[in-house]
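User: For my dataset I need records formatted as: sequence, then structure tokens, nothing else. Please produce one.
Assistant:
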Amino acid sequence: MGFLLSKSMDANFKKQQEFMLHNGRLQMERQILMQNQMRERQMAMQIAWSREFVKYFGSFFTLASVGLTVGAMKRKKPSLLAPIVPLGFILAFQMDSAYGTLIYRIRGEAESIMESEHDRLDLPQGTPSFESIEKARRARSSLSSFLEK
């Protein structure tokens, strides 16, 4: 009788373990999907911001270029055209960021760094562990309870 009860409990225990493993896997998959969606939304906002910036800066650059060119021609001072060069570089960078291949080049460089220079990615004092986080939490909670007194 005890053997049958033990066998039944073992089977239930294994089923429960499998359920917990499956549930944990589902939860992790959901977290990964959620984090990826948040990353995609942040990237979309950043690209949209770049495109909006290009509209405003492009307008400014056009007006400034026309004004500086007219001023240089009227005053016969070609040095007035000098600001167009750095402003042009800024506009070119923003255009590349908003509409060009900058994001792909950055991604490629990041992948290269992760593969060949992984040691540059190490955090100071290493990766946080449960123990280090718990130690900091306890220190903060003891400090806040000390300050309340």
